[in-house]
Amino acid sequence: MSTRLTNEFLLYSIIILALSALLTNTSRSQDPLAGKINEPYLGISFTVPDDWTAYKTEIGYLMVSETERGFVLIMQHGYNSIQELQNAAMEGIADESGTYLQPEGKPEQIGTSGLSMQYTGYVEWQQAKAYALALLSSHGGGVTILTAVEPQTFSQQYVDLVKNIGQGVEFSKPETPPVVEQWKNALTGMRLTYMHTYSSGTSGGFSDEIVIDLCPNGTFSYSSSHNLSIDTGGAFGYNHGRDGGAGTWDIINGSGKPALQLSFHDGTIRQHMISLQGDNFYLDNNRYFRTNDTQCF
């Protein structure tokens, strides 16, 4: 997945997660947060407004209020220019789960490093109006502050709320978490293999395999294969696909967590979040096997 696609997907996911968290509380951390919040690994600090409470989620900070409706979310973005922000702001957000948000009007530039946009439509089949302010950091990337509420409640108050939070945002050079270097050492010279197979027993099945070799010199090789077989009762079909690539790899600070970055020679950049579940190793939500049999030359 390219960096740009990742950012657009995160924007959609964040809106859905924020609404879900507002209704179920499943994505909130154990402790509510107030006052000034400093994230040295993200290079961001901001202040939670009075009468609002922040909860840290996997992808940002969700703010809710006991007296005001709606929510505010602060998240990182990976854009590096006003033009990139403008292009992203004019793209609507839609999916098959009842989310359809379209830009309302044109984006407004805020100073030399900010851009705001208003949206209207639906979130999970519920009418919603949203306002977003994106700010650029001199260290790359930045933050988006987004508020959403039902249209009949939306007012200038929510716009001012987001702008006031934005005025208090401070950027710094992100610090590298120790775990990033630890994972880089642990994955150097390793082969990562993903395998998934499904068989219906009577009508065929499919299998997927991805192999990533992470070489000690900082290069990688990537190969994937997909096999599909279909039995229609008298006729049997078979399809095979293969893809590959190579480039350089690194372990980076992905929003405060370690991520594997694959930079392909064709300019494509893919980032995969690293996690452990017990002794099992995951890239994003997919389990990979780690072995030391890389084909590095």
Brief descriptors of the model:
Protein Transport Mog1p, Chain A, disordered N terminus, nine-stranded antiparallel β-sheet, alpha+beta, 20 strands, 4 helices, 297 residues
Describe the structure.
The chain has 297 residues and is an alpha+beta fold. The protein folds into 2 domains: 3-171, Protein Transport Mog1p, Chain A, CATH 3.40.1000; 178-291, no CATH class. The chain contains 4 helices and 20 strands. β14 and β15 form a beta hairpin. Mean pLDDT is 80; it is low at 1-14, 19-29 and 235-241.
In short:
With 297 residues, this protein is α+β, with helices and mostly antiparallel strands. Strands 3, 4, 5, 6, 7, 8, 9, 10 and 11 form a nine-stranded antiparallel sheet that branches.
Number of helical elements: 4
Q: Please count the beta strands (DSSP E, at least 2 residues each).
A: 20
Structural class: alpha+beta
Stretches with pLDDT under 50, minimum 5 residues: 1-14, 19-29, 235-241
Q: Ends: how far apart?
A: 27 Å
Proportion in β-strands: over 45%
Quaternary state, please?
single chain
Average pLDDT score: 80
Q: What's the name of the CATH homologous superfamily of the largest domain? A: Mog1/PsbP, alpha/beta/alpha sandwich
The description of the largest β-sheet is: 9 strands, antiparallel
The geometry reads as globular
Structural domain tally: 2
